[in-house]
């Protein structure tokens, strides 16, 4: 039996059966905007592949090779660098940071969290339902990117990449966004930090990890890549090799650990 969530009116009443469905409804525009923007960006950069020439390959700076731009002559190599290695993972990171900061921190900052928890809604249930909605949004973004790649696959000369390989990369993209969403959600649940602070810390950590993953080969410390989620997102080259189950499991486990840690602290701290 579910408990109606307070503050419901109008069309939202149909989604008031659980915190999960209400969170999806409340964030429907946010999820749609992120999915549309990321999908369109992937489509735009993916469609440039037919224009790649030998001169384009030679002009790639050595410092950018660590970001996946070391093999832009092949379809999989180009997409791994120009699409899935550059802006798309950063957008996924910022989605996780921004949305995760909304899940607990925004409500605590506004005082709405007290109203929610005054009803028969446990802290763990609240956090898990909110996080499940965030993960669903990440899956929608990944689905939009997969749809965009499928739409231009033939016209952009990307037929050499199978749909299964595209799907594998899309799943990793969803998990990457979920990892940073878990970090932001867990951080907001574990502390009393404001929404902008939670976003700033999470986004900063994401950008630092992204830079470390890209520049580690340049400083002769490739092993540092293994400390970043980006290595498990794209290091196994899913577009070339398909599903990398170990990498997928590591991303999923990292998200679970971050949420569990945040939930544990959330249940033990004073919200007053």
From TrEMBL:
UniProt keywords, alphabetically: Membrane, Transmembrane, Transmembrane helix
Keyword Membrane among UniProt keywords: yes
Keyword Transmembrane helix belongs to the record: yes
Residues annotated as transmembrane: 30-52, 72-95, 131-151, 171-190, 197-216, 248-267
UniProt xrefs under Pfam families: ABC2_membrane_2 (PF12679)
A GO term for molecular function: ABC-type transporter activity
One Gene Ontology term, aspect cellular component: plasma membrane
Entry protein name: ABC-2 type transport system permease protein
Organism: Actinomadura coerulea
């Amino acid at each position: 039996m579910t408990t109606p969530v307070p503050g419901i009116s109008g069309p939202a009443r149909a989604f008031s059966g659980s915190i999960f469905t209400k969170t999806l409804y409340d964030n429907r525009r946010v999820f749609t905007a992120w999915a549309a923007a990321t999908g369109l960006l992937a489509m735009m950069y993916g469609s440039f592949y037919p224009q790649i020439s030998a001169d384009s390959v030679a002009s790639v700076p050595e410092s950018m090779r660590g970001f996946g731009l070391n093999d832009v002559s092949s379809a999989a190599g180009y997409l791994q660098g120009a699409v899935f290695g550059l802006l798309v993972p950063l957008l996924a990171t910022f989605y996780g940071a921004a949305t995760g900061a909304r899940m607990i921190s925004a409500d605590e900052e506004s005082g709405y969290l007290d109203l929610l928890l005054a009803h028969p809604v446990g802290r763990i249930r609240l956090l898990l339902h909110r996080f499940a909605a965030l993960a669903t949004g990440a899956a929608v973004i990944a689905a939009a990117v997969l749809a965009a790649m499928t739409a231009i696959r033939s016209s952009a000369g990307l037929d050499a990449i199978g749909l299964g390989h595209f799907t594998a990369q899309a799943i990793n993209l969803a998990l990457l966004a979920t990892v940073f969403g878990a970090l932001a959600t867990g951080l907001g649940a574990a502390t009393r930090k404001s929404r902008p602070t939670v976003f700033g810390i999470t986004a900063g950590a994401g950008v630092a990890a992204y830079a470390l993953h890209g520049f580690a080969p340049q400083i002769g410390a490739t092993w540092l890549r293994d400390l970043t989620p980006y290595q498990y997102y794209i290091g196994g080259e899913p577009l070339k090799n398909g599903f990398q189950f170990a990498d997928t499991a590591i991303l999923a486990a990292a998200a679970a650990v971050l949420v569990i840690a945040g939930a544990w602290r959330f249940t033990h701290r004073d919200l007053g």
